[in-house]
Amino acid sequence: MQRAVLRCPTLARRTFTTKSKLLNYANLKLTFFHKPNCGLCDVAKEVIDDVLSSTEFKNEKIVVFGVNINDAKNNKWWKMYCFDIPVLHLEDTTNAKPLVVIEHFFREDDLAEKIRLFK
């Protein structure tokens, strides 16, 4: 019995690590508030894409939901963010962790750091 434990400790550890990695960002929800013809929004979208395609996050299943605040159905968000876009909400869908919000200017290092808060 001890032999099996001694021969397979890395396999057991690797299996556990893999499972926990799959759950790392499973409940992370990113919501990107934008509008057409917004240069800052275009730059922010590029920053988001670059961070999510980086080596650290490319294998994670992090999805970004886009909300065009100019759509009539998004009037609530227009009232809230008409002068603040681009805006990105980061939230954990399973618990009451505080919502993290990034507004105006997005930096790759800042976004990556904020995503790591949800590990």
UniProtKB/TrEMBL annotation:
Highest taxon, organism lineage: Eukaryota
InterPro entries: Glutaredoxin-like, Glutaredoxin-like_YDR286C, Thioredoxin-like_sf
Pfam families from the UniProt entry: Glrx-like
Key word Electron transport present: yes
SUPFAM superfamilies given in the database record: Thioredoxin-like
Entry keyword set: Electron transport, Transport
Protein family: Belongs to the glutaredoxin family.
Record protein name field: Glutaredoxin-like protein
Species the sequence originates in: Kazachstania africana (strain ATCC 22294 / BCRC 22015 / CBS 2517 / CECT 1963 / NBRC 1671 / NRRL Y-8276)
Recorded name of the encoding gene: KAFR0E01460
